[in-house]
Amino acid sequence: MIGNIAALLTTLSFLPQAFKVIKTKNTEGISLLMYAMFVLGVFLWSIYGYMIGDMAILVSNTITFILAIVVLCYKVHSIKKSSN
Amino acid sequence: MIGNIAALLTTLSFLPQAFKVIKTKNTEGISLLMYAMFVLGVFLWSIYGYMIGDMAILVSNTITFILAIVVLCYKVHSIKKSSN
Fold first, then answer.
1. Which of B14, B17, B39, B73 to substitute to test the interface with A, most A CBs within 10 Å?
2. ipTM for the complex?
3. Contact B41/A at CB under 8 A
4. Inter-residue contact B39 to B65 (CB < 8 Å)
5. Which of A11, A39, A44, B36 is the most exposed place for a label (fewest CB within 10 A)?
6. Number of domains in chain B
């Protein structure tokens, strides 16, 4: 039970961050290195979940991966824009 | 092996974010709701890891909890400061 709630919270927590970045286009305080590492990490978690046949790990990390990629893309975009 | 690398990446990814927030004091693009949910989530993961006796889950989530709390505190502090 606690594990499911924990997974739900850590997975869905990236939803408000993705919304905020999409709405405000402001990624100033966000660390590019964090999201690069995190996106790679949850990608590997998804593969791991697939390999051991654990749908919970696969699904929760795939959702987090999609949300975190959104934030990462906005961060990369804003860095490119500011360097032009 | 993939699971350990994934855990390492997702855990340590919050280190550059904590450093960036401490250094720049800029939390503008960061979502308060995300970190509130995420901190609660990794806290529950730590409890879950303790309950099932899984040191990897306990240790990785405790580290993430500490790093994420740093970001959350800076975010709360900057909101309080801007509302004064």
1. B17
2. 0.87
3. yes
4. yes
5. B36
6. 1
